[in-house]
Specification:
alpha/beta, single chain, about 300 residues, 10 helices, seven-stranded parallel sheet, binds oxalic acid, Rossmann fold, five-stranded parallel sheet
Length: about 300
């Protein structure tokens, strides 16, 4: 099956290089724009060019190379009827949970204070707080959110989760849903973790109203998409002390511009959209499973609901 590679920001052929031999029997990769456009039924895409999909009239599916498919979904040339497929890999959820817990425990245990003390050669114990006294709100209860929720709960943190639609939560985890449940999910939380997909409903969800509901001195862990965060509101909440700190992995503009105030902010830890990656073999498995489903005339596994956006 012919598969076109569509990205304005990544060399997808280089990215897939270690798996190309395994895929060769079933998939013929072609670079965009390609001469045999009529042969193309499949695309692998990440930040595709705005007109990228319009050249391939027989395109049936587009695979993301990540858990999110938002850069495909917002591409203006994506036609209705093209299945958009994302990668779901349990190891990625585990890695994401580790990243989130690293920051949460850093906040709980006062790591910035120890760092500062070490710089000053100061030997001073600081009072420690039990996890049970630190409520955590997790926004997003898909594969990653549910893994993180269970890991937080196992460490003794009181956990609430919020998702757009109602989903049963394991015992000990309080689940909230719908727009109405958001306020209750975050009320008085000291750590808020954003693992939501980007949709029109979740764009800008991390704003002054949400921050005002948190416990004073709360900590934000933001690993969703840059557009979830109102950056000006975040800076204001940090300045007022409503937020004690923030771990930010994703940004409205990536790479983060050199003059952005987050770079130098003492309360902010910036990481370069690196919280967790899917593995290249998992991407290759997704491409193969998608091609096989198309050959059988079936909907590929992990096809995104295009109305919901995830
Ligand atoms: C993803 C990402 O979607 O890394 O997997 O952003």
């Amino acid at each position: 099956m012919h598969c076109v590679l569509l990205s304005e920001t990544l060399d997808l052929r280089g990215y897939l290089a270690s798996e190309i031999d395994r895929l060769r029997d079933r998939i013929t990769f072609v670079d965009h724009p390609c001469a045999d456009a009529d042969e193309v039924r499949l695309a692998v895409a990440w930040d595709p060019p705005a007109d990228g999909f319009s050249r391939y009239p027989k395109l049936a599916a587009a695979c993301s190379i990540g858990a999110g498919a938002d850069s495909i979904l917002r591409c203006p040339s994506l036609r209705a009827g093209v299945d958009v497929v994302r990668v779901v890999e349990p190891a990625q959820a585990q890695m994401m949970s580790g990243f989130v817990l690293w920051h949460a425990i850093g906040h709980q245990r006062g790591l910035p204070i120890y760092r500062d003390q070490q710089r000053r050669q100061l030997w001073r114990r600081i009072p420690q707080r039990a996890a049970r006294d630190i409520p955590v709100a997790i926004l997003g209860f898909g594969a990653m959110g549910s893994r993180a929720a269970q890991d937080f709960a196992a460490l003794g943190f009181p956990v609430r989760v919020w998702s757009r639609s109602a989903r049963p939560a394991p015992q000990g985890i309080a689940a909230f849903h719908d727009v109405g449940g958001l306020a209750a999910a975050v009320e008085g939380a000291e750590i808020v973790v954003n693992l939501l997909p980007l949709t029109p409903e979740t764009r800008g969800i991390l704003d002054a109203r949400l921050f005002a509901r948190l416990r004073r001195g709360a900590f934000l862990i933001h690993v969703g998409r840059g557009e979830h965060l109102n950056e000006a509101d975040c800076l204001a909440a940090l300045a007022s002390g409503q937020l004690a700190g923030a771990a930010l992995d994703v940004f409205a503009a990536e790479p983060l511009p050199a003059d952005h105030p987050f770079w130098d902010h003492p309360g902010v830890m910036v990481t370069p959209h690196d919280a967790c990656d899917v593995s290249v073999p998992a991407v290759a498995d997704t491409i193969l499973a998608t091609a096989a489903a198309l050959e059988r005339g079936e909907t590929p596994p992990h096809t995104v609901d295009r109305v919901r956006g995830y």
